[in-house]
Amino acid sequence: MSSDELKQVRDKLDALDKSIVDALAARDRLVEEVAHLKSDPNRPVRDLSREEALLGKVADHAESSGVNRDLVTRLFREIMDHSLRRQHRRLAQGDAKNENAVVRIAYQGTNGSYSNQTAAKHFASADFEVELLGFPNFKQAIDAVANGTAEYGVLPVENTTAGSINETYDLLGQYDLHQIGEEIHRIEHCLMAVEPVPLSRIRRIYSQPQALAQCTEFLDSLDHCQAVSFTDTAMACQKIQQDQNLTDAAIASEEAGRIYGLHVIKRNVANQKDNYTRFAVISKTPVEYDLRIPCKTSVILATRHEKGALLECLTELAKHGLNLTKLESRPRPNVPWQYLFYLDFEGNLASENVQEALVEVKAFTSYMKVLGSYPSRTTEASAPAVPKRSSETKGRTTKPRTDSISDEIRQDLEKKPYVLASRAKRSADTVIKVGNFSIGGGSRIVLAGPAGLDEKELRSFAENLKELGGGVLAVNCFTHAAAASLSYSEALNVLSSVGQDYGLPTMTEVSHPDEIDAAKGLIGILQVSSRNMQNYALLHALGKVDRPILLRRGMMASLDEWLSAAEVILAQGNQQVILCERGIKTFETSTRGTLDLTSIPIVRERSHLPVIVDPTDACGQSRWIPALAQASVFAGAHGVMIETTHQETSQRALTLDKFNELVRTIRDD
Known about the structure:
This protein is 38% helix and 21% strand. By secondary structure, the protein is an alpha/beta fold. It folds into 5 domains: 44-84; 101-184 and 275-287, Periplasmic binding protein-like II (D-Maltodextrin-Binding Protein, domain 2), CATH 3.40.190; 190-269, D-Maltodextrin-Binding Protein, domain 2, CATH 3.40.190; 290-390, Alpha-Beta Plaits (2-Layer Sandwich); 407-668, TIM Barrel (Alpha-Beta Barrel). The chain has an 8-stranded parallel barrel, surrounded by 7 helices. Strand 23, helix 20 (599-606) and strand 24 (611-613) form a beta-alpha-beta unit. The protein is globular and about 80 Å long.
């Protein structure tokens, strides 16, 4: 292609890009009209069913146009989130709306820092011009808001790896400021240097203390290397660029490295792959949000020095139906051995219910400060929509059990050898969150993966599963590692990396307590095979792990033995157990096992734990899998586990086409 031809093509691309931006601007104007119409308090602010239908339409259109469904879904989620934020701002009372002035936002750090990126993200939907002001430390940033140098501040309050940022909480307690928003930012730490030098040459790694705390496993693996605390992640990049020392590196975002001209040596160096920081948005004046907007309220309190005072406070919140999302204690300044409690709960201070609850709580406190109410970014009501295909219908759920059991069933259950697993102990279904998905209750989930660890095939399957609406990416790393010429840890990293890249939780089998430590930091669900159902050393160890455990029924196990095995895990403290029916041994010889469909309603009657069915393992013949999977769902299973293959000759696993057809059928019914 000649340079003239290339220029012509690029000119066409530029014109298309401009038309996309023009279309977004036109869409923004329509969103403003929608927001105006929604000023009517009888209209809902968010219509989740419409969002799901819209995502499904654009994804279907993308697929028919030869564009990746997942790409279009991600783009439109961002567009829809931006639109919803604009509507929230329009419905807020007290928010800055002076279009003729520049609104200043204070944060700790410099250009390219995570706080800088978060502040820009949060105010991207504002209808005013913003100026981001970076400060060397948290106190100076919060001072800027208090003295009027800035209208807003954006400060980190907690991280999913390192926990709460105590300095921020202490400052919020000291200043007469209000929390008027929150923002969630994904933290993707990279190790960067001035040149792409070998990792072995690095002697000093600079970063902000919280960032270093989030990367301890990586840092501990390095020999002859010192971790050095620095003011800020982006400032650490700035120092590396200025010093030009090939033995120095910084941990920061890839964006910060790009700004300061650094080279990425290693990506994803944090202890946890899913690493997020929650930021508080603060203001000198409170903002009142429309009651239709799902909000959280943050409160600081000190209880009276009376027995059960904290319990009474929490009980009052529960009486008023307010779901607690955070509870943390901090030493009370200048009062030794007394504590301040930081509470977040779902609710809006503008509602009478929340006001009444806080009045009742005050009776048990010596001090209480309401930081504010703000639109939530972490509750279920604020979760992003899932695209629905145009053929999908409502009501494709497994009916949850929330009713109390009969006296007859309760009396029978009280004789059983299990307690914590019993519905006599808990009448409502247990719902287990893994990634962005729920297992149990009224949801249906697909757990699936190819019969192998070829990364290219795994990525292809993950993309396909994502386009189907998602699910759990399940591969037995221990079994398939050798065939892929990988060590067990390498296999875990491959599965974890693919799951992370496609936003899918992962699952793999562990067969010995020694395998747990390697798997629990990377994999979402740990699976116990049927042969290990009564491996009590393994069950005890898994009971001490904060990871969902999928427990497969043994081929010769009764239902009571199966639930008793689950009880071993629950008794150790881990309440995240998923039961998996995978077939039992009978006199039948034409199949590997016999799928016990009757176990599903019986176990659901006896236990609150989620039930998954694996027809692949049960029958061992691919042609029978669709019928058994559909029957399992109709019998009440919360999901199915399916093995897939690219090999048409496989008798055990479903081909991708058959798998796709089955998943759509299950989700349509």
